[in-house]
Amino acid sequence: MITIEENSQNQTIPKLPPKIFTSKWLQTIRGIVSPISFLEETQRRYGDILLSEFTNFPPQLVISNVAAIQEVLTADPQLFDSGSGNNIIQPLVGANSLILLDGDHHFQQRKLLMPPFHGERMRAYGQLIRDITGQVTSQWTVGQTFVARPRMQDISLQVILRAVFGLKEGERYQQIKEILTAMLDTFNSPLSAVFLFFKSLQRDLGAWSPWGKFLRRRQQLDELIYQEIREHRSQPESLGEDILSLLLSARDENGQAMTDLELRDELMTMLFAGHETTAIALAWALYWVHYLPEVREKLLQELKSIDVVNADPTVITQLPYLNTVCSETLRIYPVAFFCLPRILKAPMQFMGYDLPKGMMLSICIYLTHHRPDIYPEPERFRPERFLERQFSPYEFLPFGGGNRRCIGAAFALFEMKLVLATILSSYSLELLEKVPLKPVRRGIVFAPNGGVRLMVKEKF
């Protein structure tokens, strides 16, 4: 599989991937501030398997080669420390988050968390998603302008609070909503996102310092979440269909329930990973549908073929063109540019290279989704490509892959389709700035620059 080169003294020399010849500090800054140009430029120069170095991270192999992606995602998970590669998000989600776990603990926790996001459990949330979308959009009036991303975040956050916590409108509901939104806005620009990448900046210098403000909001949110857990525990007879109730009832193979701390960290993971990502994807979908009249017309024709208001949610989510629009939205500008990284626990021979222990393997979703050999005219938004052929999980991977694939992927797509169908079948919208939009960093994810400005027009 690999050839070891020999030097003139007959000593073996490890064969390493091409390395970016720029300072670690400059690579870090460019990766944070202008990731698209940095990624595209380095791929052109060094190829689809290259070695990069970021401050506070191990040496990192950036991969956009499909065969290499397949090799990583089908490898034995025991070869990697995956949790430790994601320490950047620990301040947001906590050390017991599924994202930060490894080995048997990760496997057991994933097993406990999977059921609520699939099958009948998930479909039970269909009407809830439509109702919340209807409530939020009912406040829209003809001639009103709005920014899509925060409005979609309002919908997705309400879905999470109702589906995960079973919370109805009320004081705690409002408090969680306000604090969580403020916490996310702490890292809403490339400049503020540096606090996540540089631990030396994570210092509490008082209530008005950026990190100090974040910590105080996190403490407030913790108190509200623990209150909710305690109330659920104290009323076992009234546990409902919400995900927190299901998790409280769940037991591992040894009959052990999740601790309050484990519950808190998993709930925080769902709050952070489960609502803003969907909101960003929806904002992008609304942008593309209204930026390209032919896409909008084709999608509206499909939606008119059924009674969206009264149809079974699964009928809506199986509409072929709606599915392709959502898939192409997640392809062209994925919300996360990288899969969750994996760190080698031992030296490895990989695609003709000798990789040392401690090397971080990072699959680049953005670069893979923009390969012209897989996606002809990759910069063009063309949903039809998903009707013309089926892409492998190593070519199309907006939710990551392997044993670290996002457990909420099916739920996110389900919600995205229902929200989009409900809005488009009820309102006529106009894009106010018909200009090409690019993603900008928002914490560790990427959102449309400006959030997508729309205007409400006369209903059909």
Describe the structure.
The chain has 460 residues and is an alpha+beta fold. It has a single domain, classed as Cytochrome P450 (Cytochrome p450, Orthogonal Bundle). 49% of the residues lie in helices and 10% in strands. It contains 19 helices and 14 strands. The strands form five sheets. It has a five-stranded mixed beta sheet with strand order 3-4-10-7-5. It has a three-stranded antiparallel beta sheet with strand order 6-14-11. Strand 3 and strand 4 form a beta hairpin. Helix 8 runs antiparallel to helix 13. The N terminus is likely disordered.
Brief account:
By secondary structure, the chain is α+β, with helices and mostly antiparallel strands. It has 19 helices and 14 strands. 49% of the residues lie in helices and 10% in strands.
Q: What is the helical fraction, as a range of percent?
A: 40-55%
Number of helices: 19
Shape: globular
Give the uncertain stretches in residue-range form. Answer: 1-10
Per CATH, what is the topology?
Cytochrome p450
- Number of E strands: 14
* Terminal residue distance: 62 Å
CATH class: Mainly Alpha
For the residues shown, what is the average pLDDT?
88
In CATH, the architecture is Orthogonal Bundle
Q: Quick one: biggest sheet? A: 5 strands, mixed
> How many domains?
1
Topology:
Blueprint: E1 5-6, E2 12-13, H1 24-33, H2 35-46, E3 49-52, E4 60-63, H3 66-73, E5 80-81, H4 90-93, H5 103-113, H6 119-123, H7 126-137, E6 145-147, H8 148-165, H9 171-185, H10 190-197, H11 210-234, H12 243-249, H13 260-291, H14 293-304, H15 313-317, H16 320-332, E7 342-344, E8 348-350, E9 353-355, E10 360-363, H17 365-369, H18 385-388, H19 409-426, E11 428-431, E12 439-442, E13 445-448, E14 453-457
Parallel strand pairs: 4-10
Antiparallel strand pairs: 1-2, 3-4, 5-7, 6-14, 7-10, 8-9, 11-14, 12-13
